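Tokens for chain A. Residues wanted.
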């Protein structure tokens, strides 16, 4: 995507969204596989299907509904991406990260990214891992190609991909709500195949606590635009080789639903504590 074209497209997207809702969100959320019901708890909400938004594309994967929800949590204006795109669906990396870039163009200061992931750390399944850092093994980078200087620098710093203060706030919220969790590094791979046992052994050796097929390029694009990030993985299964049964998407979405109340409590609690 050409840089001038990207800036112009984001301007058109923002104009359209503003024509539907005058809400000016400060906090954004990206909801992973099977985690979309959080969006239904947003107050005074307006839902815009991705298919109606200029330059958005609709997800094709079960558990990703494909709607931008604008509204409030208490007095805090929020924007929720109910479902995300993946490169393995046939989308370019630019298309994958475009929705979070749109959140940034709307004025969102912080984005809370969630995903369903396979656990490498020893922990309860299903459960939660607060993301402290990431490893991009997707084979792509959201900033490849010409840089849009209007959006951010050519070489953005990634030493604090996940904001430390906000990560601490999230852990405090989880503790307050007595939601069991661990902290760890998220490894983003290309998919759509699940990892092999040998790949999981490699990921464990390089320090990954969970593995999934999303998130890493969204964080790169957001940090490029100086948006703060905080993240949490819903550990829906043990990674390949760490459990006896074969992995399936049905298991992923089913286990996500099993901890839905805790997940919603965590995100609601974070929004209410957020004072950035």
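Reply:
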């Amino acid at each position: 995507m050409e840089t001038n074209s990207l800036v112009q497209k984001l301007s058109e997207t923002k104009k359209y969204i503003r024509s539907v809702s005058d809400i000016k969100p400060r906090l954004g959320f990206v909801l992973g596989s099977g985690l979309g019901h959080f969006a239904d708890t947003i107050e005074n909400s307006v839902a815009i299907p991705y298919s109606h938004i200029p330059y958005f594309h609709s997800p094709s994967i079960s558990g990703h509904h494909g709607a931008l929800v604008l509204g409030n949590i208490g007095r805090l204006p929020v924007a929720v991406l109910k479902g995300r795109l993946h490169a393995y669906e046939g989308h370019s990396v630019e298309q994958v990260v475009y929705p979070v870039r749109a959140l940034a163009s709307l004025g969102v200061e912080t984005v809370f990214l969630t995903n369903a992931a396979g656990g490498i750390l020893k922990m309860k399944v299903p459960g939660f891992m607060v993301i402290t850092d990431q490893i991009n093994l997707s084979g792509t980078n959201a900033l490849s190609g010409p840089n849009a200087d209007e959006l951010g620098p050519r070489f953005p710093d990634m030493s604090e991909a996940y904001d430390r203060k906000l990560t601490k706030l999230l852990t405090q919220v989880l503790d307050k709500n007595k939601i069991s969790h661990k902290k760890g590094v998220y490894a983003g791979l290309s998919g759509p195949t699940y990892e092999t046992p040998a790949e999981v052994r490699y990921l464990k050796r390089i320090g990954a606590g969970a593995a999934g097929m999303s998130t890493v390029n969204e964080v790169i694009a957001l940090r490029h635009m100086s948006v703060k990030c905080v993240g949490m993985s819903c550990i829906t299964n043990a990674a390949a080789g760490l459990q006896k049964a074969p992995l399936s998407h049905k298991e992923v979405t089913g286990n996500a639903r099993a901890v839905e109340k805790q997940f919603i409590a965590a995100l609601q609690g974070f929004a209410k504590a957020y004072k950035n």
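Residues 11 and 244 are 49 Å apart (CA to CA). The helical segments are 3-20, 93-105, 164-176, 197-205, 216-224, 249-258, 260-273.
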